[in-house]
Amino acid sequence: MGKFMIIGPVTRDTIKRDGMVYHHTGGAVYFQSAVFSSFNMDITVVIPLSKSDADLLNAFPEDSNLVPVFVDETMEFENIYPNHDLNHRVQKARVPDNPVLPENLPEPLESYDAAILCPLSPTDIPIETVKHLTKHDVPIYMGAQGYLRHLYDGEIILKPWEDFPEFLKHVELLFLDEAEAGIITDFKVHDLETIAKQLSKFGPKEIIITRGDRGALIYSSQADEIYKIHAFPPKQTMDPTGLGDTYMAAYASKRVEGFSPKSCGIFASMVSTMKLETIGVFKGNNKKVLGRLKNHGIKDI
């Protein structure tokens, strides 16, 4: 059983899709906690939020060890899907400055198999916190999304991550989506394989780029190998919010157990499909995932 520390803000979310509006707890840490709990992982979640929003903590799995970092204001997101293209999302937000600092992390750090960094804005997890984890030999799995997100008239836009080299030298696994991959640096290239290989030169052993219903691309610098992972068709399409976060957690849960990047990618792809079929977080388990994979002719991952 893996032991993870998940770090990042919880959010109050509003989802607008197909004429429907619904509200729920959000944030990568929330979606990922559900995945790790479903696979019986030991998780500690470090969460900045306002005391007045402490009720959001009730949404997390009962077996989570929650470490709230109380701040003045909780982050809020509005996710708008204007058409049937689930890869097209408009985001609006209220983004307070709530960094998780080294003194907010629980001790001892050395007992964790990995720290899952889930920033939603550039200031959520500063470099001093990353360095502190590295100093205690905690492997870092990072979702890049927050470092690229900036507010412009209340709407989220993506900008290149200027100081990415300072961060990536501490990162083992880097996760980002196709849009983020295209803008993360000023490499001035758009081929995902080239981008993945170039990013790996700054430190990460694996670059995982999710592409929605077009699957994912994984580059392992250790094997010098590119893996193209197909997406599995969902039985129904309900809620695309949190798919990338779900993929990251599912991938990490298998990676820490020693599975290959390709196997982790296939497993995570099916977990993401199963999450898409329901509103909210992933609600399956390992047996159900393997059963669905078997139905697609995949008996071993």
Defining key terms:
UDP-N-acetylmuramoyl-L-alanine:D-glutamate ligase, nine-stranded mixed β-sheet, 301 residues, alpha/beta, four-stranded mixed β-sheet
Identify the CATH homologous superfamily.
Answer: Ribokinase
CATH class: Alpha Beta
Largest sheet: 9 strands, mixed
Strand segment tally: 15
Number of helices: 9
**Alpha carbon gyration radius:** 18 Å
SSE ordering: EEEHEEEEEHEHEEHEHHEEEHHH
Distance between the termini: 18 Å
Architecture in CATH?
3-Layer(aba) Sandwich
Helical proportion?
A: 25-40%
Strand content: 25-35%
Domain module count: 1
* Uncertain residue segments: none
Strands of the widest sheet, in order across it, are: 5-4-1-8-9-12-13-14-15
CATH names the topology as UDP-N-acetylmuramoyl-L-alanine:D-glutamate ligase
Shape: globular
Structural class: alpha/beta
Brief description of this entry?
This protein has helices at residues 28-38, 127-135, 145-148, 164-168, 178-183, 192-200, 243-255, 261-276, 286-295; strands at residues 3-7, 11-17, 20-26, 42-50, 65-71, 75-81, 90-94, 114-117, 140-143, 149-152, 155-158, 173-177, 206-210, 216-220, 225-229. The chain is an alpha/beta fold.
Overview of this structure, please?
The protein has helices at 28-38, 127-135, 145-148, 164-168, 178-183, 192-200, 243-255, 261-276, 286-295; strands spanning 3-7, 11-17, 20-26, 42-50, 65-71, 75-81, 90-94, 114-117, 140-143, 149-152, 155-158, 173-177, 206-210, 216-220, 225-229. It has a single domain, classed as UDP-N-acetylmuramoyl-L-alanine:D-glutamate ligase (3-Layer(aba) Sandwich), CATH 3.40.1190. The chain is built from nine helices and 15 strands. The protein is of the alpha/beta class and 301 residues long. The model has no long low-confidence stretch (mean pLDDT 94). It has a nine-stranded mixed β-sheet, with helices on both faces.
